[in-house]
Amino acid sequence: MKKTLTALVLTLASPALWAFSTAELAQTLQKPSNVQGAFTQQRQLKSLSKPMVTGGKFVLVPKKGLLWQMQKPFETTLRVRSDGIMQWNGSAWTNPNQGKFGQTQQIKLFLDLLGGNTQGLEKQFNLALSGSEKQWTLNLTPKTAVTRQIFNHIVISGDSVVRKIELDEKQGDKTVMQFREVQTGKPLDDFAKKAL
Description:
Number of strands: 11
CATH superfamily: Lipoprotein localisation LolA/LolB/LppX
Distance between the termini: 61 Å
Radius of gyration: 19 Å
Oligomer: single chain
């Protein structure tokens, strides 16, 4: 009886049983109607001694798309949706990457990373999640031939939203995106409503 009780207590205390799952992570990240805030992106190219730093604002509407408004070092506004990446020229959306092979997969990956679509990510990566809903880290190791050619690994971390994405690429380039001043469920401005 004592052994059975000890085994039961150990089983109930096992972190594996109570661990934060990728399905719970997806639910957490897809809960808000939208996520808005500021971003800083550092891209360290193997060929350059200093990282390229960009910054701006973003609006993410899960399952719809992303509005990426870079303000530094120059202004450019991109819209990322399942139908492609478009650039705002001041009066209309244009497609700067028309006809580029592989763009659809890149778009899907980026939206899956930010929107917490773990089912989509699992098709291309092995996922290892650690932490809790309040502070988690998701390690992605490529499992398809295509993703193995591009990435060594990807690390995403956050809480109720994604706070940081680190991309370690095969050719030696590294990108770190950090998200701050993040708000969820805030009404969208007219431009974001029309764009997304």
